[in-house]
Task: structure prediction
Amino acid sequence: MLELKGITKKFGSKTILDNLNLTVTDGKILTIVGPSGAGKTTLLRCISGLETVDSGQFLLDGQPFDPATNRDNDAVIGVVFQDYQLFPNLTVRQNVTLAPTMVLKQSAAEANETAQTLLAQLNLADQADLYPYELSGGQKQRVAIVRALAMRPKLLCYDEPTSALDPDLRREVQQIIVQLRDEGITQIVVTHDIPFAEAIADQMLRVEAKS
Amino acid sequence: MHYVNEILPSLVSGTGMTLSIFFWTIIVAIPLGILVGLGMTTRFKPLTWLINIYVWLMRGTPLLLQLIFVFYGLPIIGVVFQRYDAALFAFILNYTAYFAEIFRGGLQAIPVGQYESARVLRLTRWQTLRRIVIPQVVKIVLPSIGNEVINLIKDSSLVYVIGLGDLLRAGNVAMSRDVTLVPLVLVGVIYLLLTAVCTIVLKRLEKHYSYWR
Result:
């Protein structure tokens, strides 16, 4: 369980997140919705440690932790970026196995096996040896999901997962997120796509734009 | 033909000098260029200032002038180089600056998202550089590096100014002695062969890196 207590984030004099409290229940989907500029992405970046917060506390299973400095070998938070950010110089398989072998020190065989299973699960088994430029947008997104999952995160975050997808692919990513929830993975989804958010959410957070 | 055979040995030995300057400069200046290029992208201001001044000096004055300064100027402050060492020192200093600018451009072309993506996967800085950033930078900079490499072959002819016997100088000597342009024609042909080899190698390298986009 991830708890946020009194999280405040400012850029200069502009307060983006103001004393925010939030609890993310294990195995559930939390969607964060709101208009552009309301701080949805900033919140996600704070949770994933890409931004430091000005005040407030993060608790993971009751233990305080700092996402920005957490560097131990216990994977905590995975992120699927809006533009996926796959590594173009590596194949799909290498994209997925790079961090497990280098960070978690898994053997190549072990990492490959996990990658194979996860890729097959998200219908990417035939794409394992392709490079990202050879994939469609939906496939790239699934690779990004697999790459994050391979690190066995306690929590998986998505930034605007439907923004670049047509309606069919939107349904597909919806299925994937629900399927992962059924497997017990805790997920946070940032989106401005309200119908999509309502379709997947166990819990919803609405953030308002600050004037 | 008889004449060609007669002057060829001196041209070949001149080519040896040209190649030796060429290879040593490449071998030292490219890795140094990567390091200096990395230095230019740090947020540590004094370092970037220092590097910018260095690059400005190296790119802002003729290489010929730098050669003369290293060989004739530095002894005044007690730094004495042999001719060959002076040439190498000047070439490495000069080319490192150009390579550094190229690598800086390549490094800045990598989207921030690539670093963030690596960061949330908890790769270290060094792992990120080695496995993700540098391979992409190499691909981006290859054409520009190729340009400099070909320039370097021709620039190496500047070492005549401190009395080293390179390919062009060997041709010059033969021309003045025998009052004929034939040696210079040969010199031109040899330069063309050398640059042709470089061009082929560079094309191969670019092809090697074309397996991803």
